[in-house]
Amino acid sequence: MGKEGIRYAAKVDLDKDAGTLPYLHNRWHPDIPNYGTIKNNETVKIECVDWTGGQIGNNDSADDMRDVDLTRIHYLTGPFEIETAEPGDLLLVDIQDVQPLEYAPWGFTGVFAKENGGGFLDEIYPKPAKAIWDFEGIHCSTRHIPGVKFAGLIHPGILGCAPSAEVLETWNTREAELISACSHMDRDVAKPPEPKNVHVGTGEAAIKEKVGKEGARTIPGRPEHGGNCDIKNLSRGSKVYLPVHVEGAKFSVGDLHFSQGDGEISFCGAIEMAGVITIKFTVIKNGVADMGLKSPIYIPGPVEPQFGPGRYIYFEGFSVDENGKQHYLDATVAYRQTCLRVIEYLRRYGYSDYQIYLLLSCAPVQGHIAGIVDIPNACTTLGVPIDIFDFDISPGAPVQKRDMGSCAYASS
Amino acid sequence: MGKEGIRYAAKVDLDKDAGTLPYLHNRWHPDIPNYGTIKNNETVKIECVDWTGGQIGNNDSADDMRDVDLTRIHYLTGPFEIETAEPGDLLLVDIQDVQPLEYAPWGFTGVFAKENGGGFLDEIYPKPAKAIWDFEGIHCSTRHIPGVKFAGLIHPGILGCAPSAEVLETWNTREAELISACSHMDRDVAKPPEPKNVHVGTGEAAIKEKVGKEGARTIPGRPEHGGNCDIKNLSRGSKVYLPVHVEGAKFSVGDLHFSQGDGEISFCGAIEMAGVITIKFTVIKNGVADMGLKSPIYIPGPVEPQFGPGRYIYFEGFSVDENGKQHYLDATVAYRQTCLRVIEYLRRYGYSDYQIYLLLSCAPVQGHIAGIVDIPNACTTLGVPIDIFDFDISPGAPVQKRDMGSCAYASS
Amino acid sequence: MGKEGIRYAAKVDLDKDAGTLPYLHNRWHPDIPNYGTIKNNETVKIECVDWTGGQIGNNDSADDMRDVDLTRIHYLTGPFEIETAEPGDLLLVDIQDVQPLEYAPWGFTGVFAKENGGGFLDEIYPKPAKAIWDFEGIHCSTRHIPGVKFAGLIHPGILGCAPSAEVLETWNTREAELISACSHMDRDVAKPPEPKNVHVGTGEAAIKEKVGKEGARTIPGRPEHGGNCDIKNLSRGSKVYLPVHVEGAKFSVGDLHFSQGDGEISFCGAIEMAGVITIKFTVIKNGVADMGLKSPIYIPGPVEPQFGPGRYIYFEGFSVDENGKQHYLDATVAYRQTCLRVIEYLRRYGYSDYQIYLLLSCAPVQGHIAGIVDIPNACTTLGVPIDIFDFDISPGAPVQKRDMGSCAYASS
Amino acid sequence: MGKEGIRYAAKVDLDKDAGTLPYLHNRWHPDIPNYGTIKNNETVKIECVDWTGGQIGNNDSADDMRDVDLTRIHYLTGPFEIETAEPGDLLLVDIQDVQPLEYAPWGFTGVFAKENGGGFLDEIYPKPAKAIWDFEGIHCSTRHIPGVKFAGLIHPGILGCAPSAEVLETWNTREAELISACSHMDRDVAKPPEPKNVHVGTGEAAIKEKVGKEGARTIPGRPEHGGNCDIKNLSRGSKVYLPVHVEGAKFSVGDLHFSQGDGEISFCGAIEMAGVITIKFTVIKNGVADMGLKSPIYIPGPVEPQFGPGRYIYFEGFSVDENGKQHYLDATVAYRQTCLRVIEYLRRYGYSDYQIYLLLSCAPVQGHIAGIVDIPNACTTLGVPIDIFDFDISPGAPVQKRDMGSCAYASS
Fold it and tell me: What residue stretch is flagged as signal peptide (chains A, B, C, D) (predicted)?
């Protein structure tokens, strides 16, 4: 009856090595032991570290971004056993609230080095870079990209239930086939299981070894369970319906974002932070079959920041790449071109390309698939809210080049 | 001073063969003669036929959809000379209004046969199908998909200025290369110039022959000028900034839509109609360079139909195809999966797959690029507004299979 | 099936004297003969003259405003018999569309002279004034108040069914009591029946005489039937539920507005225009008792112009009048003060008080009752959208006095 | 740079008697000593008790509501000295966040007895009543009004700077005149200064005595400083501009609301709670004159809960009272009628009138002044969001009377 505060299912300690903490893990595997139990219909608070487990500092150098160890990410909180949940059920995750930790009101957006992680535009922008964001209630701003301030649409980047052994096997097989098929490409197209730096919460050495060999990496979202979907609208008041694959669901959550743009294009692109999420869990028996779901669905919450439709500039991009080559209905190519169009436009105000690249990753930009059938061109659009800038970026307004300082770069 | 009505730059006659009308054309080419002249800063009304030029009827058979002649489309109104416009300028197109023709308050959505046009899901849904929509002021409904009614976000599918000879050459070269590179595929990946049924307005035989050989087809949008962008939000009150490539701009417009979903997935997927668009034209001298634009941008209008964010169901899709094959950050594959997830969900209410396929093409669904960096999976989302249905499709609501009748099919 | 246009139940002729036209009337009375019949569930278009029946011209003088004859207003189109409607039913009026007449794309906002009509602020602003608005699709602007442009939320000011003889008697009695009780005030507090210039459509002399004696004036909205509610949000896509008091409902509509602010403070305050409204009529049998309705209700349409909540400046006003006198929870006094606060603020930019008074009457300003229980002060708020101005009126922005020209005044 | 949490300017202790706490006070007076100092441009957190200082319990009886001691309210936190603020300046209060106390996630809505406080409808509903609300993240629900859940638009009911001696004198004079003029009414029309239970924070006995004699009660908002404006939209991200009347501004805040409806009709009508508000303070030198402000203005924040305009039912009310008496343009009478119309409508579902009265006070209902010039009727509207109910209250939906339990009443 609301007379007391909500129970914490986990509290984090930011001063300890994330890789030693019993309530964190960094792979998907059914054998990672539960950290605790949550009742059906119970509401709990769950604290999360930032996705790198503290590798990135509140400073003005991107050396940490350059040197990030991707075998350690993402540190998720859990897994939690949800009472009564069984395979075939749906777990209704009612996100009642998400907040930064009160004592750490800041976050970061990064560009990884092309040779260590990369990002959506790494062929063009291969260098590491970083911006630190300060939170002011619902708003944020950064000393590394002056002239910008916006309300965060705060959300978890990752949530999901553990895969069953069969589902895990499917993942590993199909991603290995891709890696094999793409061996000629000079880039990672997927990340296979990796024993190095694997962390399995309270799991013993034998489990750790097994998870190291088999555990799915947390980087991609996957259709069977959701995971790292990076959906910017999954914010306060949203409801997600997650398929359950194992007894007790084994739910995990992490990678909290203060804000993100559609696509999260710089990879470490959201405003990454440590924080606390309040969730009510409800088990829907046999929900997967009853609703015909092969992947999660969600209903966004009622409090999205409102920019009138007339307060966006929309950029258009097509599946003709920067070398003039025509691609066939390729929305990925089109969206990359759309991003480049924004960079070309915003450059006029004095921003560096890296500043804009960072900004597009984390500001509440709208990425739409406009047309995907008009052969041979896919057309995507990207809407930039005019009101996040403290000067007027409208096409008709006068343009003045300003001193926009610099984002953080790595030392050379 | 508004004491009289606005000038019509063109009025259409729906009873005549579109291929004979002096104010229509169906290819992009700089040599198609202007139909008339519009002053800088002038506002005019321009009437348009539907994109097929009347090939589709208001009836209950999809035979016309099956037999559509794609060499004839799209019939655009124009080109119009815009006074003072020169290459390098931007043409600001202020869409003051779009309406159906008062005497023809209906439109159509179609699925083409896989072997004649196809669509985004034609591997799975190869048959032709059709729905006829009746307009009731700002709303529409159809006897072919019962239980659905929504306000249209009415817009032009195609608008653009004529390419210069150089731009046209670029288009033809790069699309020919794609066709050549994809010759092993058993489908059209692009449409080369096509003399058959070419129409050049008032152009003489020599021009007709030239345009037949060189004229770019109207199907794809293209980065240099926009064209068939099929952007569902380009509605009443929107402003588009179009690059000018030739003297006088040679602006054309057509393919009016009463409504469209992001992606327009069934290809003939919007609610296609004849109608009238009111545009104010303004020339922005040297705008292309001043704004750093390589493609059009636009600012959406202030009157988009409002569904609260809590009134959508969002479906998630990933770049793992229906055969379980993993694709690398392929947003096109992901969006196709997202569409299939919706079909699986809505089937429960008694709709046929083709009814849902048609509905997803034309209803105001929101297609977003959620994550495009989490290797190997791109994640896209598709939001379906709950309030367009006259029963409750929420995940928690009781499900009842209804008699949903049928969309129109072709005779066999 | 939408193959033809919608039937016109009435078309207006702006060149004729409104007081002679068979489809118009200007009083509420059950004996005014029907102009025609509309089927239950039928959709029709109904054209309307402006509320003054053409007394106001598109020019730069407010002489016509000064000399307006208020015995002639409002000219309503109808009444229409709605088949099957009986007393006790509700008439569901589905407003599918409202548009200005295509050949008359302009409207007017006026301030009446204090001694002939007056307005909400006539103690302070007693002079007649006028602004002429030009329509550009969904937007409007005026040469009389430079720097302002906005999308109209187009709606009918008046719609309702005829009163029964009993209801009419109630109105006349209760308003006569008010007039009698306020005889000491030096202003009209209500308008009694008035034979002069009464117009009853096709009604014979005997009816005219009777209506002249008994007919209710059209100026106030009234709880029993709605009437002149001047609700700015009753726009395209809205549904109104109107009580039926007589056989056949005898529905009338008029006083179309291109836009209005909450309160319509200058009395002739909306952007008044001639136009056409498309309505679907549905009779709900016994609806008054079933829904427990004593007054109309409505559901607003889905396409209201969107200004983000952060794009308004809200002014506060309290029930302490301009002489410093404290009133007891008087929302009317509070709202007048709120209006004055806006005038004081906007003066800084060079507007005259009369220009702002006109603007507040017709722009889409939001008038809210904030607190009405905190004795002795009622608090009301008025939100002015920032984005209707082409310069920045935000509190933090630099203020520059401009040459704002003049609204139209009367000759002296 | 955001590396640490935000400073608390005051923390509350809910276990102590509010009337003894040094950081609280319950009158407006310039001599109440400052509790501390806040720098210009500083951001602080300020905790607040509920407005009654803990007189109301989380239980199922309204005895506490009946017995509430109104000489003790409202307990405000402060006053705080804002460095550099002087009379004539504006204090920009940037509301960065408002939250309930983490350990007290509940609030209350009450109806006072007519003879002890009363409310907007107390002639009709004179009995005390109460509902306890439980908070679930951004949403709330209550065991006392089943079937309802909504997102709070969380805000402070009261904020303002201390009056100067001159301003205070103005208040006391003008309110005394009202009390004197209304001595024939059998109700309190205003509350004069009251020595009983006066609390002045750390102030000595002499100050306490002076404030008891002269201090303005906190119940009304007042034009000169704002105060108890009860503006439901003054939520997270809003900015308020407050006139400064004394050196150091002496800012106070309290009466936090989880949600409120326009009008807050039951007087104790918002969802009252203890909580914490995060504010950034900025002094704008000479702002009162520069902006021409006689009363505060505000800009609402960007995250208002979104109900589409088509998701409200709007009720209309007119200035004809429940006895059929006609009032002259009286928006207060009209709004009372509008409230009664909602009660009549919602009764059909099994709610008691008191349950609806409570709900209208605290749910995010929209109260608008529609028309205020159409003599003799003012017309107000009240929009009830359809989506706060877990069943369909649309006019067309089937109506079923449910067992809606009961709100809390007082023992007899």
Answer: none
- Choose the closest CB to C96 out of B43, B139, B278: B139
Q: How far apart are CA A178 and CA A163, in angstroms?
A: 20
Chain D hits for B309, Cβ within 8 Å: 306
User: Which value does ipTM take for this structure?
Assistant: 0.93
pLDDT digits (tens, 9 = 90+) for A160-211: 999 999 999 999 999 999 999 999 988 899 999 999 999 999 999 999 999 9
Per-residue DSSP letter, B7: P
Nearest CA in chain B to C133: B2
- Nearest one of B17, D373, B153 to A309, comparing CA atoms: B153
What CATH number does residue A397 fall under? 3.10.28.20
Q: What is the DSSP string of D346-368?
A: HGGGT--HHHHHHHHHHS--EEE
Q: How many CA atoms lie within 13 A of D183 on its CB side?
A: 4
C231 lies within 8 A of chain D by CB: yes
Question: What is the DSSP code (8-state) at residue B163?
Answer: P
Q: How much is the average pLDDT of C211-215? A: 97
pLDDT at D3: 56
| Facing C326 at nearest CB: one of D174, D313, D374 | D174
Residues A243 and A233: their CA atoms lie apart, in Å, by 20
Taking alpha carbons only, the member of A187, A75, A59 closest to residue A123 is A187
Choose among D305, D308, D387: nearest Cβ to B306: D308
Tell me how crowded residue C30 is: count the other CB atoms within 10 A of its CB: 20
Inside any domain, residue A343: yes
- Asked if pLDDT for residue A2 goes beyond 50, the answer is no
Is D216 domain-assigned?
A: yes
First-to-last C-alpha distance (Å) of chain B = 58
- Which residues, given as ranges, of chain D have pLDDT below 50? 1-2
Out of C97, C104, C302, closest to residue B305 by CB = C302
Average pLDDT, chain D: 94
pLDDT at B3: 56
> Percent of chain B, pLDDT > 90?
91
Comparing CB atoms, the residue among C347, C368, C375 nearest residue D191 is C375
Please indicate, yes or no, whether residues C59 and C121 belong to a single structural domain of this protein. Answer: yes
- A286 with A319, same domain? no
pLDDT value of residue B307: 84
**Residue A318 structure tokens:** 């097509």
Chains touching C (at least 3 CB pairs under 8 A) are A, B, D
Q: At what angle do helices D331-346 and D353-362 cross, to 10 degrees?
A: 120
- Tell me: the pLDDT tens digits for B195-227? 999 999 999 999 999 999 999 999 999 999 999
Instruction: Select the residue from C92, C239, C374 to test the D interface by mutation, using most D Cβ atoms within 10 A.
Output: C374
Which residue in this structure is represented by tokens 């009604």?
A: C203
Question: D76 lies in which domain range?
Answer: 8-291
- D302 close to B (CB below 8 A): no
The answer to whether D241 and D90 have CB atoms below 8 angstroms apart is: yes
Same domain assignment for residues B289 and B314: no
**Which chains touch B (3+ CB pairs under 8 A)?**
A, C, D
The pLDDT tens digits for D196-216 are 999 999 999 999 999 999 999
Please report, in angstroms and rounded to a whole number, the separation of the first and last CA atoms in chain C. Answer: 58
| Chain position carrying tokens 């000028």 | B225
Q: What is the pLDDT of residues B220-278, one digit of tens each?
A: 999 999 999 889 999 999 999 999 999 999 999 999 999 999 999 999 999 999 999 99
E-state strands within B60-188:
76-82, 90-100, 106-111, 129-136, 139-142, 149-151, 155-161
Q: Among C263, C298, C333, identify where a domain stops.
A: C298
A:307-346 residues touching chain B, CB 8 A cutoff: 308-310, 312-318, 320, 324-332, 335, 337, 341, 344-345
